Every structure is written in C-alpha cells, then in structure tokens.
C-alpha cells in the first residue's frame, strides 16, 4: 500500500559548530533517539526514516538505526537534496514531512497540526517556518513528493542542493504554499541544537522534565522556562538559521 505521509529525519555527525551532536546524551538517551521518540507520538505520520550520509563519520548513526530497527538511507553528505530525494524514492509516498536531527524537542502536536492544515488546504508545500512564529527547533515542513522530484531535477544553486526545500521556497510562483502560524510569536525562543550553548539549554530542559513523560510538548517546555527563566539567557545571543545565511553568502551555481 502506498505510504501517504512519510517523515524523513535528516541528520549527520559532522556538524562544524557541534561535532558529533547526534550522539550527545540527553537525560540518558542520545539526541537522535530523542528526535525519533518525539516524532513517534505523531498521529498523522505513517512512517519515519533516517537519512544520513555515506561518510564514515555517520557510521555511528547507521549503527544506531540498525540497533533500533529504524529504516536508514545513506546518501550524499553535501548534496542533501539528492540524499533526501533518493531516500523518498524508495517509499514513493504521497507527501513528505521534513524534520532535521537538530530538533530533539520537536513537538508532535505541532507536527500533526502542520500536516493537518497541509492536507486540508491541498497545498503543494506547507510549513510553520515561513514566516517563523514557533520556536527555532519546532520546524516542520510537508510537501508533495512530486514537488520534491521537481526540486531535485531543477535546483542548480549550491544552497538549494544543501537545503532541501529552498528551491521550492524560491519558486513560490509555481506552487501553492502556506504557513501554520502560532497565535503567540515564539520565534525568538531557541530550542534547536547547533551550538554548545544549545546543548546546555536542551540538556537542562530534559533534566528538569524528568523521565516520567512520554514526550514533551511546547506547553511543557514553556512551563519549565517560566519556572526557570534564567535558562533562556544561555543561547539567546545566537542568530536563527546561521547555516542557511552562510550558504546564501557563499552561494554558486552547480553545473
């Protein structure tokens, strides 16, 4: 039976700002396990897979997937769009949810509402990041597999090969796009994992949350930050989308 909604988690170990971050410990479990645990509580995702690279540095991720009976595709390290496309091609889904491995606090309830609005509105591409109103680290994108195929075929900018959905967002005249917006703007709140400061904050959130909850939602996290407001200062100085900004600065056409 054709998969309706496939979730692809893209992850790698060779982060320049926080090397090996996918295997860092978060209250007894590695980061990648936290990402998959959070997503496992989605009610609208039909299958979740890991997409990592063939680089030796990502052997640890592949081995984690094997141990945990998680489907894993390995592809290009730098051409992430190609890796993503070839991972999806195996399953031929109707639509794809894109989650990055640096989101160990991803809220499955926010993911499901993004998916729900996407299908209700019959969009080609839908997200909660354009413009961002949720915390950095809650980023969810969903799009038709056919649109991903077009991006893979036509994307020529290096930035569009490195950032899976950038071609789609650069060509909104071709697609029906939309955005799920939070009633309260939390976009300045940083819950993503890209720097040592991020790891310190997220580690504290998981420690304070304890191990009794099956998963954390945004309300849980906000309650912790309200009780311990000093935590927000740990990483508030870091700009959102540093990787994308750098890619755009160094952009070039790939022949």
**Terminal Cα separation, in Å?**
38 Å
Q: Compute the CA-based radius of gyration.
A: 17 Å
Unreliably modeled segments:
none
- DSSP summary: helix tally: 10
Element-by-element helix/strand order? EEEHEHEHEHEEHHHEHHH
Domain unit count: 1
Q: For the report, how would you describe the main beta sheet?
A: 7 strands, mixed
Task: Give the overall shape, derived from the CA principal axes.
Answer: globular
CATH topology: Spore Coat Polysaccharide Biosynthesis Protein SpsA, Chain A
Q: Portion of residues in helices? A: 25-40%
**How many strands in all?**
9
Strand content: 5-15%
Category from helices, strands and their pairing = alpha/beta
Order of strands, main sheet, comes to 5-4-1-6-8-7-9
* Fourth-tier CATH superfamily name: Spore Coat Polysaccharide Biosynthesis Protein SpsA, Chain A
What would a concise description of this structure say?
Helix content is 37%, strand content 15%.
Describe this structure in words.
- With 255 residues, the chain is of the alpha/beta class.
- The chain has helices at 31-40, 59-67, 80-89, 108-121, 145-154, 158-162, 166-170, 196-209, 218-227, 242-249, and strands at 5-10, 25-26, 29-30, 47-53, 72-75, 95-100, 125-127, 141-144, 177-179.
- The protein has a single domain, classed as Spore Coat Polysaccharide Biosynthesis Protein SpsA, Chain A (Alpha-Beta Complex).
- Helix content is 37%, strand content 15%.
- The chain is globular.
- The termini are far apart.
